[in-house]
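hey
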């Protein structure tokens, strides 16, 4: 067991430089969200849904071993990122995107290699990496493959581990071989959608309050009720977001690496 722990630590340190954080922006200033990707065969691999979820005009890319306060991120326009897509399968199919990535900052960085999953993987430990909840620091976790199944034509794994929003696009790594056997595609908590709806409703209420006041102030007992309600709504939004984080039970789903290997762009390492 101690030897297995040492292998995991060594593998994490080896892989970190090849993990990529993608931060999406609108109007070049407002951050819309972030996700995960990784380098392989001089491509950037991530999920299709992370770049198709909502319109953005630019993306910043950094690496898992970098401190964002000390470096200048790679900045690409949305058009450039999308024009570099070599192969893509949408979320309704296999949910992957393979992007040509020849930025000089990526030269010499660790390139993850792919392997085809074995049939007897259920119950085995795996590593996964990512930037959950918009964190700027790479997180590395050990989880277990709890289920191996098909949904339509897609081969999927269910993972029991601390998988959260923002982990999408990260690699699922088989510890003994060090190879990528899947890509994290989504999480499932049971409450996540409910909290998302609550957060959206609060955000819409704040916008409605701000638009209806029209610049005028109404003071009642020395208090501006519109401003007060806006502050209350913002606090509720923050509380709801933190509750969403706390409610996550750590179940995630990964699409099998075999669908990437079948493209012929990225070769399996035996």
């Amino acid at each position: 067991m101690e030897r297995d722990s040492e292998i995991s630590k060594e593998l994490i340190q080896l892989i970190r430089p090849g993990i990529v954080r993608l931060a999406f922006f609108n109007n070049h200033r407002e951050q819309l969200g972030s996700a995960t990707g990784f380098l392989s065969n001089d491509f950037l691999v991530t999920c299709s849904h992370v770049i198709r979820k909502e319109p953005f005009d630019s993306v910043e890319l950094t690496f898992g071993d970098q401190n964002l306060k000390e470096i200048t991120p790679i900045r690409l326009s949305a058009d450039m990122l999308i024009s570099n897509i070599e192969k893509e399968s949408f979320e309704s199919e296999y949910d992957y995107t393979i992007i040509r990535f020849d930025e000089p900052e990526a030269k010499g960085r660790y390139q993850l290699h792919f392997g085809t999953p074995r049939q007897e993987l259920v119950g085995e430990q795996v590593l996964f990496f990512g930037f959950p909840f918009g964190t700027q620091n790479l997180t590395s976790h050990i989880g277990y493959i709890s289920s191996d199944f098909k949904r339509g034509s897609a081969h999927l794994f269910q993972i029991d581990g601390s998988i959260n929003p923002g982990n999408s696009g990260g690699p699922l790594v088989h510890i003994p071989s060090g190879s990528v056997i899947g890509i994290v595609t989504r999480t499932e908590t049971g409450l996540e959608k409910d909290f998302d709806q609550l957060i959206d409703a609060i955000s819409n209420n704040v916008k409605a309050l701000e638009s209806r006041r029209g610049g005028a102030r109404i003071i009642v007992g020395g208090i501006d009720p519109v401003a007060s309600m806006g502050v209350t709504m913002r606090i509720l939004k923050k509380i709801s977001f933190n509750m969403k984080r706390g409610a996550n039970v750590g179940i995630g789903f990964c699409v099998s690496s075999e669908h990437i290997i079948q493209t012929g762009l990225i070769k399996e390492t035996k």
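The longest strand covers residues 139-151. The chain has six helices and 13 strands.
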